[in-house]
Design goal:
Blueprint: H1 2-45
Length: about 45
């Protein structure tokens, strides 16, 4: 019983860490795209 609990806990931790990494990677890409869009707007208005 204890081994099953530890296995499930480890699997949940691994899944959470992988999903967290993907979430931050996606957020970073969104922020980068927003920055590029702002830069294009500024260059267009110069």
């Amino acid at each position: 019983m204890k081994n099953n609990f530890l296995l499930i806990l480890a699997a949940l931790f691994l899944a959470t860490s992988v999903l967290g990494c993907n979430m931050f990677k996606g957020a970073g890409e969104d922020i980068e795209n927003a920055g590029a869009s702002i830069q294009r707007t500024v260059e267009h208005n110069d």
